[in-house]
Amino acid sequence: MNTFRLPAESHIGHVHLLVSNLERALAFYGGLLGFQEVERNGATVILSATGQPPHHILITELPDSQPKPYRTTGLFHVAIRLPDRYELARIFKHLLAHDQHLQGLADHGVSEALYLADPDGNGIEIYADRPRSLWSWRNDQVTMTTDPLDTRGLLETAGDTSSWKNIHPETDIGHVHLRVSDLARAEAFYHDLLGLDVTQRDYPGALFLSAGGYHHHVGLNIWAGIGAPPPPPNAVGLRSFALSVPDEETWRAVKARMNSAGAAAAGERNYGYATGALFRDSDGNGIELLLERDKPGRSA
User: Fold this and answer.
1) pLDDT at residue number 189
2) Quick check: 228 pLDDT over 70?
3) Fewer C-beta neighbours within 10 Å, C or N terminus of the chain?
4) Domain total of the chain
């Protein structure tokens, strides 16, 4: 029986998205959502909540790109986590003031969330957690619901947002949710091999996993259909997401486990404050194992 588990401090680092038009994407992530530019390198721009590392969103313009077909694997949504309900209320009011279309609003019990899409249709969740003391667990499974959001109460919390400009500096990426072709095969990768704990199995066609008792760092679903194919190479969407581990011993141990399972690293990248080793999951989704030498920001 496999007993390898990631340390509790492990968390999502950044996401790397492919877009069809860089300036249009920057108007959304920077101009509307308020992330700040850290670095620009050709067709790639790195953004963060502070304008400094750690990075949160990398966007790369993909020449001759096409929309991601609906019934394919890949990104379902990337979840931007705000530090508290007040900040969620402020960005909610800001989005409404700018006539931003929202695809959904939900109270998940453990969190409150807004759903929208970027100009290329990449799914975005913006959310704030409730205190962990208010989460309910049963038989090692966290209780998550999809109930109506108290929009009136949220807006009453927001106050005056006329001067809102940048997203809160403690914002990070809380989780990523992926479409996969087979849940059992994806669980074998993310739980058995990578070492995340399964935290929720009750949603039909979905599975949620995390480190350290968080409600989820990774969501998986087969809502595009069992056996769904990967998107075309020139489709917009997720290039990779980073899973940050707290120490070099864990980083090397996970790399060794990946290599022994035949999932050899597709390359390493130095971000200055961190080093990432890129792997592929059972559906080809990019997962970058990230070792942060400095520990700015907050973890789950």
Assistant:
1) 96
2) yes
3) N
4) 1
